[in-house]
Specification:
This protein has 13 helices and two strands. With 305 residues, the protein is mainly α. Strands 1-2 form a two-stranded antiparallel sheet.
Length: 305
């Protein structure tokens, strides 16, 4: 195998891991929210707000992990606001999500302007390939701990949905609100908590963007990853473990352009950078045509009625 091919391969693997991490957290948050029977299209705004809050907190405190915690808290509050508004009579969750996406993004842009230039402490990476003696390979395979946290969380959520009372309550609420009420479950309460927790996960995904990769705060940081997470959840058929696999797929698609650029192939660079968006479009189109694409969809989702 040629050295150039190896370089592209390892750049693709490292890039897929880095690019997939925000997708993983946002998709797990949306999966939890949709499992409870609610759609949150506002996670794009939550992602951006989480990125800004994380960067601001890391800069002010000197601790990037404090930034991650602050991003989770900001996401929890924005998700809780979404859940509270959607609990009101005759309120559409899709419309509220779009409004809060704009709100979260606007708040992040307003309060984040002083932090565009300053350099905040960044999250550390775990070196997995230092033993190879190749600086390029060691840099490509340096993995942030949040990636491993996301993997554990995906499997833990899948297990909890199948084997715990909390998982049963969430699934019942998402599949049939009348059945949940007959069991004495507070539908609005479960959906409020699920939406808030999903927002917290999206906030953590935003903290990865600003504190690790690309590792800075600016107003064009997200590039629509929060919205693409909705397509990712559909592609994963509302299964947390499949969300992890789908996030890696989206991450690999996003890593094609930089991997080719690492060996000085720049022809079609912007086209390859558009691969995640093309993949999102294909998934959304196919989900309406292929019957099995909606297998596993919670019955209470607005789009399924």
């Amino acid at each position: 195998m040629s050295a150039e091919l190896l370089t592209v391969l390892f750049a693709m693997i490292g890039g897929a891991i880095r690019v997939s991490t925000p997708f993983l957290f946002v998709s797990l948050g949306e999966c939890l929210t949709e499992k409870a029977g609610r759609i949150n299209l506002g996670l794009e705004g939550t992602l951006v707000l989480g990125a800004m809050v994380a960067y601001m907190t890391s800069y002010e405190t000197g601790s990037p992990w404090a930034g991650v915690a602050a991003a989770a808290a900001a996401g929890f509050l924005l998700g809780g606001l979404h859940g509270a508004l959607c609990s009101l009579p005759k309120v559409n969750d899709v419309a509220v999500g779009i409004a809060l996406m704009t709100f979260g993004t606007g708040v992040a842009f307003f309060f984040g302007k002083p932090y565009i230039q300053p350099a905040a402490p960044r999250l550390p990476g775990i070196p997995l390939a230092d033993w190879t003696g190749s600086p390029a390979l060691a840099d490509a395979l340096k993995v942030n701990p949040l990636f491993f946290v996301g993997i554990v969380l995906a499997f833990a959520m899948a297990w909890a949905f199948r084997n715990t009372r909390v998982g049963l309550v969430v699934r019942t609420t998402g599949d049939s609100a009348p059945a949940a009420r007959a069991m004495g479950i507070s539908v609005d309460g479960v959906r409020l908590l699920a939406t808030a927790a999903g927002g917290a996960l999206a906030g953590i995904g935003g903290s990865f963007l600003s504190l690790y990769y690309p590792g800075s705060w600016n107003e064009a940081l997200s590039s629509g990853q929060g919205l693409m997470a909705v397509a990712l959840v559909i592609f994963a058929r509302w299964d947390p473990v499949r969300c992890f696999v789908a996030a890696l797929l989206f991450g690999a698609a996003g890593a094609i352009g930089p991997a080719l650029q690492s060996i000085n192939i720049t022809q079609g660079y912007y086209f390859f950078n558009a691969a995640p968006y093309i993949l999102t479009l294909l998934i959304m189109v196919s989900s309406g045509r292929v019957r099995h694409a909606q297998h596993g969809m919670p019955g209470e989702l607005s789009v399924s009625k």
